[in-house]
Amino acid sequence: MAEEEVNYASVVFKANKSPAAEVKKEEDTVYDEVKVKDKPADQTDDTKDEKANNRHGNFRLLACCLGILCVLLLLAIIAVCVYITTVNPTSGQNQLTENLTHLEALNRNLTNINDKLNSTVHNLTVQFDNLNKSYTALESNNTDVIAENLKLEKQKQELETKNQQLETAMKNLTETLEDMKTESNKLNVSRAQWSIDQYCPIDGGVRKCKSCQTDWVQEESSCYVVHNAPSNQQLTWDEAQANCKGKISELAVINNAVEKEFIKESSWADDHWIAGYWIGLRVVDGKWVWLDGSDLTETSWIQQATPTKGHCAISVPNNIQNKYLESVNCGNRNAWICEKKSLSLTPP
To answer: How far apart, in whole angstroms, are the C-alpha atoms of residue 53 and residue 56?
Structure first.
């Protein structure tokens, strides 16, 4: 029998590295011997069958070894897992704790950021509401301003229209004033001519001037005209004063005894319808006042010297009590005497 050759096979198992400690452990080496018989130099059929049977047995043995090796490998893997989970659990737990702490810190930061964002959103919401209110108020004010502007525009148009009307009225008034001025000039010329004709009448083809106009009587510096109107043409005191004004004069005013005597002598009418002549004396605020504003100082001149409201004075001729003035109601109708200043024909 030839010498059998011995072959050796080695299998090495290594543990996985731990994440924290990285521990390395080398497993024991297991050797298994497999003997293979050498082929003899001269083989018979029986020898061949025996060799074939031996080879078959060797194969089965090799298969068994491989199965055992697989089981051992599985056990080694299980052992490594158990080692990782049992021998070094602290490192993983620490890593998880660190990760949890980091996550909690991140969560707190995110919570703070979220709170800040919520506060910012709240502030922005409040500001937005305030802006909306301000916008609404401004819009309302703008509406009011537009309405006021329209109102002012309307008033401006109305004022422009009124201004145009006033300008037209002023133009018309100016034209009227010009016309009146022209008429006044004509009237003045006419009056001047009238005055010339009245104060300087033509006598025998020659103008002769005098201090009082025609039909007026001069006494000192005044001219008088006596209106001996019949009863149906007599006037009240106010009407008589208006008539005198139309002649550029007033009812006669007696300033002294000479004028009083002249007025008395002028009241010469013997007509029964003339009871007296209106003169410029009446009751004002409870006292006798002349038309020139002076008071009656000689109360002995008038019958019923006590002033009576609504009474005026008339001049009467030949009064039995020698009082040449009488107090009568201003609404009575009487004749009247007008007075005006006389012209001066001599140089001053």
So the answer is: 5
What are the C-alpha distances in Å from 296 to residues 73, 255, 277? 163, 9, 18
Rounded CA separation 116/107 (Å): 14
Query: Distance between CA atoms of 251 and 219, rounded to whole angstroms?
Result: 15
pLDDT per position as a tens digit, 2-20? 444 444 444 444 444 444 3
Residue from 308, 321, 319, 320 nearest 281 by CA: 308
Q: What confidence tens digit (pLDDT) does each residue in 276-316 have?
A: 899 999 999 999 999 999 998 888 888 888 899 999 999 88
Kind of pairing, strands 302-303 and 325-329? parallel
Q: Would you state the torsion angle of the CA atoms of residues 73, 75, 77, 82, taken in this order, to the nearest 10 degrees?
A: -170
Q: Which domains does the chain have, with CATH numbers?
A: 5-87 (no CATH), 217-341 (3.10.100.10)
Closest CA to 251 of 214, 225, 279: 279
Residues 200 and 38: their CA atoms lie apart, in Å, by 197
